[in-house]
Amino acid sequence: MEKKKGSKKQKKRKANKHLVENTYFKRVEQLAKIKQKQDDDKATARLHSLNAVSKNNDCAIPSSDKIERMKSLRSMNSSGKVKTLEVEEHIPVSYPEVVLCVEVYHNKRRWSKIQEFLVLGHQTLTELKDKIYCLTDQVMQKAGKHDPSGYFLIEDIFFNDLRDPSAIDYSGPIFDWLRNSRDDALKKWESIITGELQQKQRAILGNVTPSKLPNFKTVDMHKTRFCDLRFQLGAGYLYCHQGDCKHTMVIRDMRLIHPEDVNNRAAYPIIIFQLKPRVQKCHVCKISRATKVTVDDKWARENPCYFCDYCFSLLHSSDESPLYAQFSVYDYVHD
């Protein structure tokens, strides 16, 4: 009986061992299949990534136009993008040549830079003036009162833009004021160069060496090149246009042109920074850009209120006739 029991136990152990081995091998086979599938997936993913990299590399090969656009950017070590227009004319740059980096600031937000240019030393000031963007120019054009006049005040020289026959010499009234109100002009000049506090101290303690007004002069803008100027890097100068719209202009940097710069003179001045306009959306649909602004509009949610053309027509007109007229409406130009 004991031998029979022992043989049964041995058979049972062998059967259990065989079952465990079969289960183990099946599990190993399953794991091997899973591992193989993972390896295949990795290989496929790696293949796709290599294809994507090769495509990106193909796309990353810049065209000759893109190379030309980015050359001056690399030379300036600037993070902005070189923005040049497609210029059909090609005028080789004559060596040696100087490249200046010129910044123009907002007329109201004095600390806000709106544009930055690369200008050649042999270019005239009018070539830069024609590239400067200001909302006031668009507003005056819409109103039919655009004025082509303007000037740069750099150090003690007024550079007037008198190319257009209808242009006005903006510096004329300033020179009249300097001649007719010299004492007031001197006080104003002292407050500018010394500050109000030092001016009060001078009034109390006296001033042994009184200040003198600069010997201001006028020169035609279109006859003056940047290489003819006398200026200080980093100093703030004045650009005035459309009557009384004033911008600070700073010549930030100056260097010799590099072979990797854009070598087409017709492409300059090159815009390397342009402030993005703040787009005001329609207050009704909240989707389209505003094209009109109303003031004292009794049916509007806000005052002033901005509308796109579609929403404005829905609210203010019926069968092309106005529903009411007790409000003011203006064309809205984005700033």
Q: What keywords describe this structure?
A:
single chain; 335 residues; alpha+beta; 2 domains; 8-stranded mixed sheet; 3-stranded antiparallel sheet; 8 helices; transcription; nucleus; DNA binding
Describe the structure.
- The protein is of the alpha+beta class and 335 residues long.
- The protein folds into 2 domains: 64-274, no CATH class; 277-335, no CATH class.
- The chain has helices at 2-60, 64-76, 125-129, 135-142, 171-180, 182-194, 196-205, 309-316, and strands at residues 98-105, 113-120, 150-154, 157-160, 217-220, 236-241, 245-256, 270-274, 292-295, 305-307, 317-318, 321-322, 328-331.
- The longest helix is centred in the first third of the chain and has 59 residues, at 2-60.
- It starts with a helix and ends with a strand.
- 19% of the residues are buried.
